[in-house]
Design a protein that fits this description.
355 residues; alpha/beta; 12% strand; five-stranded mixed beta sheet; Nucleotidyltransferase, domain 5; Transposase_IS3/IS150/IS904; flat
Length: 355
């Protein structure tokens, strides 16, 4: 539901855009509302604010009576059932030939009477917010993770540490060690800073990772503080909060020639990953970058390459226009790249447009 103030702001923004030459329905699309909604808001017959909160709705015919709710409260607080959840109480009552209410109804009544609270020795579940970041240039948000490469002996692995840039998808730095360690991760971050010629006076950098012990170790956190890096972590036991890092590992493990039978020494593993990193950064045309290579995007060559592709397609269309019923292929990229973007509501869109 949109408040009265936001409706007025939307209308003002659209009127301003139309005055400056924009099409009204296009302005509506930018603010994520339909053209018909705008007409309705402008109508004198439409109330100033949404009337749904003030609507009078009839009570459902199957609504519990006060006596039935009190019976539920009496049963769940009885000595026999006071330590059991509704999921245990309902089948126990059924075994006795008694039905009072369903499990979901019992939970609703308990919540209504403010009796639905966490109990027991275990910690209450905590809802954690998702880490959301965006980058509109290289070296603003890095992501890193650890994966394993088989070592040729069952149960033994080489561990690949890898840092990836969000904006360009370039592999910034990598290394292979014999174990997972926050100290090794700290060394890799220092190396990445040297490779990208970063200093503390530059724009703050975000380093996003999973929740493993190497990612949250004291040695790594101390290094990040010293370098002026803001650490960011995925939610516990959530596998897709670091999707870009997982994606590059999948590309690595599905490459032709991936050593599925293992590499006997760390040197062999390093040589193989070196070849992969060179291919990935310099030759691999990334589908997420409209088929630029990460090096092209990272070094600021992307616009030139895409403009050249666009010129090639425009020339081909002029040469034989019958082969194109519409516009040529779109060779462009979004200016911002998001990591775990939250769903954009109309209020966020309005605030961004008006700021």
């Amino acid at each position: 539901m949109i408040s009265r103030e936001d409706r007025v702001l939307v209308i003002e923004l659209i009127d301003e855009a139309v005055t400056n030459g924009a099409r009204e329905f296009k302005a509506c699309e930018v603010l994520n509302i339909s053209h018909r909604t705008l007409f309705r808001w402008r109508s004198k017959n439409t109330p100033d604010e949404d009337q749904r909160p003030y609507a009078t709705r009839p009570e459902p015919s199957n609504k519990l009576t006060k006596e039935e709710k009190e019976r539920i409260i009496e049963v769940v607080n009885s000595p026999e059932y006071k330590s059991l959840p509704p999921s245990q109480i309902v089948p126990s009552l059924a075994d006795k030939g008694e039905y009072i209410a369903s499990e979901s109804t019992m939970y609703k009544v308990l919540k209504e009477y403010n009796m639905q609270h966490h109990r027991g020795l275990s910690k209450a579940p905590v809802k954690r917010s998702i880490s959301t970041h965006y980058a509109d240039g290289p070296n603003q948000v890095w992501m890193w993770d650890i994966t394993y490469i088989p070592a040729g002996i069952k149960g033994k692995y080489h561990y690949l540490y890898l840092i990836l840039d969000l904006y360009s998808r370039k592999i910034i730095a990598w290394e292979i060690y014999e174990k997972e360690s926050a100290e090794y991760a700290s060394k890799l971050v220092r190396r990445a800073f040297m490779c990208e010629h970063r200093t503390k006076d530059m724009k703050p950098l975000v380093l996003h990772s999973d929740n493993g012990s190497p990612m949250k170790g004291a040695t790594l956190l101390e290094t990040l503080i010293m370098l002026g890096v803001m650490p960011s972590n995925s939610r516990p036991r959530v596998s897709n909060d670091n999707a870009y890092a997982e994606s590059v590992f999948k590309t690595l493990k599905y490459r032709p020639g991936y050593p599925r039978k293992g590499l006997s020494t760390i040197e062999d593993a390093r040589n193989w990953v070196l070849q992969f990193a060179r291919w990935y950064n310099q030759e691999h045309r990334h589908s997420g970058l409209n088929f630029l290579t990460p090096e092209q995007r990272h070094n600021g060559l992307g616009e030139t390459v895409l403009a050249n592709r666009k010129a090639v397609y425009e020339a081909a269309k002029l040469k034989n226009p019958n082969r194109w019923s519409r516009n040529t292929r779109k060779w462009d990229l979004e200016e911002r790249v998001w990591l775990n973007p939250e769903s954009d509501g109309i209020i966020e869109t309005i605030e961004e447009k008006s700021s």
